[in-house]
Amino acid sequence: MAKSDVKVLGAWPSPFVMRPRIALNVKHVDYEFLEETMGSKSQLLLQSNPVHKKIPVLIHADKPICESLVIVQYIDEVWTSGPSILPSDPYDRAVARFWAAYIDDKWFPSMSGIARAQGEEAKQAAIGQVEEGLVLLEEAFGKCSKGKPFFGGDRIGYLDIALGCFLGWLRATEKMNGVKLLDEAKNPGLCGWAERFCSNGAVKDVMPETDKLVEFAKMLFAKFKAPAST
Amino acid sequence: MAKSDVKVLGAWPSPFVMRPRIALNVKHVDYEFLEETMGSKSQLLLQSNPVHKKIPVLIHADKPICESLVIVQYIDEVWTSGPSILPSDPYDRAVARFWAAYIDDKWFPSMSGIARAQGEEAKQAAIGQVEEGLVLLEEAFGKCSKGKPFFGGDRIGYLDIALGCFLGWLRATEKMNGVKLLDEAKNPGLCGWAERFCSNGAVKDVMPETDKLVEFAKMLFAKFKAPAST
């Protein structure tokens, strides 16, 4: 496979962009990473994802594939000679897909809601929702991993990628708000998993450093708050 | 397969509940339909879907599977001897999953927004969004069906089920608001498809009549508006 045959359009701070990158690393597929410029959208992005105009986009053999979890499933189905990303059993696949949808539809909106919260009460409510979600995900980790290191068992799988891509922003959110969201006492399984996930060979080079994300978030806040202060 | 081995927890007016029912019909799998009582949640539902407490739930061999599109994929992967629901080509699968996500995340919220709209301006905006979405879906139909009767080709597939389950409510919304959303001039492909889909053997017995949905909607509105009028 020529390197230029597989491209990812993305941006380093985006957790959703990490998903196809990790999936391609798991499959040992080389790819070209095309970084979008902050605040503008390339012609290639607009052509490749005319409906949402959003990253990530995977371009494989000149065909665009959009939506991060759709891309991860595509990667799993195309590069079948590499390690499997989805579980092989249909019920386990359904459970992985269920929790991935929960993460995107419920849990991550709560986490990003911490930064958007207006006032201390709303912020504490969002923090509470994130913590409740992590208790559910701790339970899911126990059931999915069955005592093994990852949701996917011995290897990083679909649910590892779906949740793990948010670990950088989880740590940055903790640091910026002086809170502990992933807690050793309440989430012992997830704490160990998070360490293993972030240091995994398929992940460590694409997982941004917490301080770099904090800097990025401060820059974003300054930018969006600027008009109101003038 | 004993009939009682496959159960669907649902309610007749729910488009999401139609998805697993149509998928099981496509696969010629008998199932028991357990109708939830309007306004309350059964103990079986609360036990089976403790995270969202929502229908539909498929119970197969005593294991619950939740979230309508997750269930449809599960059905496709378990009953492999029946006709395939997802396309066989990975790119076509990705395209079907992309549009199914678009329908749930963007298009259907616009359609249900017509009923929720406060004031004429908001209502017209929601109608405009639905119509724009149908233009995109008309284009998707052309590309996916490749001149055949369904998104899935010769047979009902994943995207047919994902969009088709909303046809009853689309027609009821048209009737209640005196508008034509699915338009012969703008959506010629989808108009023909909608007819074929609703009269298909796997669909016709689970697709509610438009008038019955209109009655149900009026009853719902009366119920929710009642407290404000006292």
Tag the structure with descriptive keywords.
4 strands, alpha+beta, Glutaredoxin, Glutathione S-transferase Yfyf (Class Pi), Chain A, domain 2, homodimer, four-stranded mixed sheet, 230 residues
Q: Can you list the strand order of the major beta sheet of chain A?
A: 2-1-3-4
Shape of chain A: globular
* Most residues in contact: chain pair: A-B, 20 and 20 residues
How much is the average pLDDT of chain A?
94
The succession of helices and strands of chain A, N to C, reads: EHEHEEHHHHHHH
Strand content of chain A: 5-15%
Which second-level CATH architecture of the largest domain in chain A applies? Up-down Bundle
- Separate helix tally of chain A: 9
Q: How many strands in all of chain A?
A: 4
What structural category arises from helix and sheet content of chain A? alpha+beta
* Oligomer kind: homodimer
Question: What radius of gyration of chain A results from the CA coordinates?
Answer: 18 Å
Q: Main β-sheet of chain A: number of strands, strand sense, barrel status?
A: 4 strands, mixed
For the record, give the distance between the C-alpha atoms at the N and C termini of chain A, rounded to a whole number. Answer: 53 Å
CATH class category of the largest domain in chain A:
Mainly Alpha
Helix content estimate of chain A: 55-70%
Count of distinct structural domains of chain A: 2
Uncertain segments of chain A: none
In the CATH scheme, what's the topology name of the largest domain in chain A? Glutathione S-transferase Yfyf (Class Pi), Chain A, domain 2
Subcellular location (chains A, B): Cytoplasm, Cytosol
Pfam families (chains A, B): GST_C_2, GST_N
Organism (chains A, B): Liquidambar formosana
GO cellular component, one term (chains A, B): cytosol
